[in-house]
Amino acid sequence: MNHSNFDVTTLYRNGILVLLLVSVALIVHNLFGQNGYLALRRQQKELQTLQLKIRQLQQENEHLDKENQALRSNPAALERLAREQMHLAKPGEKIYTLPERATTNPPASTQKKNPDVP
Prior knowledge:
Distance between the termini: 90 Å
Number of helices: 3
Order of helices and strands: HHH
Oligomer: single chain
Strand content: under 5%
Low-confidence stretches: none
Largest sheet: none
Radius of gyration: 36 Å
Shape: rod-shaped
Mean pLDDT: 83
Helix content: 55-70%
């Protein structure tokens, strides 16, 4: 009788251990698997990023459509664009082009070379 009692308790313990291991495996799979929780969160973040990019592109498209319509219907807008981008001028006008602004850091040759000053 003692021998059969040992088998039942061992079987019971092994059954609980197997159920525990299966439960842990399912939880790990649900968290880290291909379609798990972390993958879902990553896909949701990517979806939000793509939706934001779509909205930005739609706004840019609307702006370009308005600019296109203005260039087709408004001669002043066409003239402004020609003056700004192609540097065109009316007869008798002069165009002055200023050099680009220098960077915020002065060139190395104009910097002081005093070792006492950091």
